[in-house]
Design brief:
Elements lengths: L3 E10 L2 E11 L4 E5 L6 H8 L7 E6 L2 E2 L5 H7 L1 E3 L12 H12 L8 H21 L15 H13 L5 E5 L7 H17 L3 E5 L3 H7 L2 E6 L2 E6 L8 H7 L3
Parallel strand pairs: 3-8, 3-9, 6-7, 7-8
Antiparallel strand pairs: 1-2, 1-4, 4-5, 9-10
The structure holds adenosine-5'-diphosphate and magnesium ion.
């Protein structure tokens, strides 16, 4: 059984069938890419995983539980995070303080217990945040203001904030869109580093084939709202259905 199982998902926007009987099985601790031409329905599908859209029909199971009808914050609490669309970065806090925020948010109430418990909890949260910064290669910058960061560092910080919630499943919608090649390669390295550092599952929507083939263990190809192929990367490029879907894109 996969960690994310999608069966028969349909989504219509007026006269447009954006998702047409989508089936998807994402195995735990893998990087699963969803590729396809513009307008294929990739973002719509991802929005059905995070509770921003509700499918008209079909099931979405995460870790054995249905996600249908749940609110975005509930799905987030179950262990599903969307990267690079994290809560805002607070520019008047330091980098590590920003990484501590998601953990504080998760523990709400813990600080009403006692001063002792509060100090203990804060120490744990800070140590956890330090580890997240280490994992994304920003440990040396932890006490810097979050106001003056390069774009690359901003991405790393967003990733650390996301990881601080200990998600089981990370969703990324075109993580390298609009990036120059050097930034793209840095992002690929960062994602690889994270994937290898812990038990975590990635679903990556991506247009850039270089990114897809650098990262993915498994690929689903979406075209006109339907998964036309699901296979290992080495079988995707030569697949005539995939070539046809990309013609004219
Ligand atoms: P992709 O991410 O693969 O480029 P999308 O999921 O964004 O594709 O869009 C799939 C189709 O659904 C497109 O034709 C798009 O115009 C349409 N669409 C997406 N969101 C909406 C919406 N909220 N209302 C109407 N049509 C939409
Ligand atoms: Mg999209």
């Amino acid at each position: 059984m996969g960690i994310l199982e999608v069966t028969g998902v349909n989504k219509r926007f007026g006269g447009l069938q954006a998702l047409d009987d989508v089936n998807l099985n994402v195995e735990e601790n893998t990087v699963h890419a969803i590729i396809g031409p513009n307008g294929a329905g990739k973002s719509t599908l991802l929005n059905c995983f995070v509770g921003r859209l509700t499918p008209d029909t079909g099931t979405v199971m995460f870790d054995g539980q249905s996600l249908i009808g749940r609110k975005p914050y509930e799905i987030n609490q179950m262990g599903v995070s969307r990267v690079f669309q994290t809560p805002e970065i607070f520019s008047d806090l330091t980098i590590i303080e920003n990484v501590m925020i998601p953990s504080f948010a998760k523990r709400d109430g813990a600080f009403k217990l006692s001063p002792f418990a509060a100090v203990r909890a804060e120490t744990e949260i800070r140590e956890h945040a330090e580890q997240m910064l280490l994992d994304v290669g920003m440990a040396d910058k932890k006490d810097m203001d979050a106001s003056a960061m390069s774009r690359g560092d901003k991405r790393r910080l967003e990733m650390a904030m996301c990881l601080a919630q200990n998600p089981k499943l990370l969703l990324l919608d075109e993580p390298t869109a609009g990036m120059a090649r050097a930034d793209t390669n840095n992002t690929i390295d960062l994602l690889k580093q994270i994937a290898e550092s812990r038990p975590i599952t990635f679903v990556v929507i991506e247009h850039d084939m270089h990114v897809v083939f650098s990262l993915a263990d498994r690929i689903s190809v979406l075209a006109q709202g339907h998964v036309i192929v699901e296979d290992d990367p080495q079988f995707i490029k030569g697949n005539p259905k995939v070539r046809e879907a990309y013609l004219g894109d």
